[in-house]
Amino acid sequence: MEKTQKPHAVCIPYPAQGHISPMLKLAKLLHYRGFHVTFVLTEFNYNRLLKSRGPNSLNGSQHFRFETIPDGLPPPQNLDATQDVVDLCVSTAKNCFVPFQNLLKKLNNVSESGVPPVSCIVSDGIMSFTLEAAEEVGVPEVLFWTVSAFSFMCYLHFPHLIERGFSPLKDASYQTNGYLDTKIDWIPGIKNICLRHIPTHIRTTDPNDRMLEFAKGEIQRTYKASAIILNTFDALEHDVLKSLSTMLDHVYTVGPLQHLLNQISDDDTETIGSNLWKEELGCLEWLDSKEPKSVIYINFGSIAVMTLKQMIEFAWGLANSMQPFLWIFRPDLLVADPIVLPPEFVRVTEDRGMLVSWCNQQQVLNHPSIGGFLTHCGWNSTLESLCVGVPMICWPFFADQQTNCLCSCTQWGVGIEIDNEVKREEVESIVRELMGGEKGKEMKKKGLEWKKKAEEATSPCGGSSYSNLDKLVEELLLSPKKISLT
């Protein structure tokens, strides 16, 4: 490769909102550091982004381009709904390798593609079919696991949990009979954890469960990667990261990615966004009218769903708390039912509540009027809230969200968990405590401490994540030879 030719990174996220967003941030940082970037979306999500952000939103630039591959699934009836997670995992693992392989061949046909030959692949941690494709073209493959280091360590120990008989569960009663409170004290770098805090895929009673089988395969292939990237920072997860370093030779913590992204000015990529739903910008103007730290922000992410009963309990808990609120209502938030809020709730909260279908969460959490966040505890939301000093009410739904909830509430001191059943009295009480109680004050103080540490980690003056990104670029992605784990 000529010295004047740009290195070429192919970035391919798992095709869901919570995976596309952090991968796009990482891709922008690589572009800023001199890479030609090819960002690979599924055809379905490519079309969703065009719908939500406009027909020219994915034009890219000379050195930041988009490509598509099929996901192998039939088009869903509701084009604004999140695809079934299990079906999507199984389909990508089964059907995406050949289209991705063909895409690499096309890109490496330099005379026709007009781009530099591929020099590295940055793939989502659960899109490991790309490892074989990277091997074929002889380039480094870096896996970006979009979870916390704590959750990543738990996932790595799924095979051990199965070997020790903790999963699958013997029958459905083990979900409710106290078995999930069984202490797990042998995972390196992790203390005071129970089965209920492990990512939820282990809770199946089916030994052939598709999601558990998928997770096992992805975990096994993780060890074949050239390196692992995590969107976290050393001060936040020191103990577990120290343990991970004894298991894997190349683990790079480069978070919070948004903090690193805030430091750059890149006209080519600044307007490229990742929200699969159209953002309603009016909520920012509404927030401008509210007092500092007075608004509770509610967003359950891009996948979590709830019942009509749970929604009504949340609604009346918020109403009775008398606190201003901004509530994000995804079109597919409810299980089976259309979203119809009680008319009386709408009437009594019309002066202090706002409901929108989607927003720019980064902008909302950074707004001075936001004082708390009722969240599903996805890792992106948890990290974003933690790093701007906003305390959380935690209502985890599935996967690693239970793990993030545990860390937020017990290790980092910035969260209060709410019971899964959802009672309006508990919602009201916890919102009041978070926004004005003594525990809420302690959480806000702790949140500001973590905000400062996140800023230090991403500082150009010796910050751990800033340095790790530089090392990742220099030692791996710019290396002409593949670096293997020992």
TrEMBL record:
Q: What is its EC number?
A: 2.4.1.-
What InterPro entries does its record include? UDP_glucos_trans, UDP_glycos_trans_CS
- List, in alphabetical order, the Gene Ontology terms for molecular function in this entry: quercetin 3-O-glucosyltransferase activity; quercetin 7-O-glucosyltransferase activity
Q: Is the keyword Chaperone in the record?
A: no
Keywords from the UniProt entry: Glycosyltransferase, Transferase
Q: Has keyword Nucleotide-binding?
A: no
TM helices/strands, residue ranges: none
Which enzyme type, at the first EC level?
Answer: transferase
Which Pfam family, any one of them, does this sequence belong to? UDPGT
Q: Which family does it belong to?
A: Belongs to the UDP-glycosyltransferase family.
Full protein name: Glycosyltransferase
> What organism does the record attribute this protein to?
Nyssa sinensis
